[in-house]
Specification:
Layout: H1 14-28, H2 33-40, H3 44-51, H4 61-69, H5 74-82, H6 90-100, E1 101-108, H7 119-129, H8 135-149, E2 159-165, H9 166-170, H10 176-189, E3 195-200, E4 213-219, E5 224-229, E6 234-237, H11 240-256, H12 260-272
Parallel strand pairs: 1-2, 2-3
Antiparallel strand pairs: 1-4, 4-5, 5-6
Protein name: Helix-turn-helix transcriptional regulator
InterPro entries: Cro/C1-type_HTH (IPR001387), DUF5753 (IPR043917), Lambda_DNA-bd_dom_sf (IPR010982)
Amino acid sequence: MPARPRALTPDRSARHLFGSEMRRLREAAGMSLEALAEITKFSKSSLARFETAESMIPPELPPMLDAAFGTDGIFGKLYALARKEIHPDQFRRRMELEARARVIREYACQIVPGLVQTEGYARAQFEKHNPKATPNEIDELWSARASRQVLLQADAAPDLFYILDEAVIRRRFGGPAVMRAQLARLIELTETPTTVVQVLPFDHGGHALVGGTLTLMTLDSGSQVAYEESITTGTLLEDKEAVAFLQRSYDLLTAHALSPGDSAALIRSTMEALPHEHHSRPFPREVDQVQL
């Protein structure tokens, strides 16, 4: 028995309305996904994701649908709205795309990227973000972060390329021991078969991505998406032109960042400059009598 089609929610966004109208008109025409795939040259699985708003609509699809269904440009108009809107549930969507990514490129301006954070560093960051968080809430946040990091242990783990602003390696979260462990982790990743870490030195000065975090993901389908993040919000971008613009800014930073070897040397010198934690001595036992 074939699986029931996933329920659609056209009232959620222009993208969801696009997908809902696509399915409605396809079914009204008695057309299967396979038949529509023959017309548009998109795969059946891709068309199914467009209908359920799981994937961003490619710009060449709307005129094909208008021609196939005789809809006089309605899909073109819906696409014009969909490509400009912020994706609903975008952080959840970002996690879904991250799990499908074959290559992840990230620029970080202040904080070590979540996929390569140590537990101590992550917990210290969570505590700084919300000093009122309970130990249980911190545990839950770390569990969520650790579940993302499982991605790196998969047989088909994505390739990771990181550009870290020098502030990332110098701004401390937790005590010196926590920061030392985190920097040691970054040194391990500076150049491996699947990871590259480069530091962008302060001397480079200003650039197009300063002040935020950018993640570029190349998915298993070959498409590219971008995720921009500020202090409390993030924006998922799947429009080709917008992603290409950000990709160029990232590529320029790659050209100005230190080589992996020089980056490892700078991270190591930063780690060696960290103070050593000294445990306070216990107070001496009180004596019963002080002799003069």
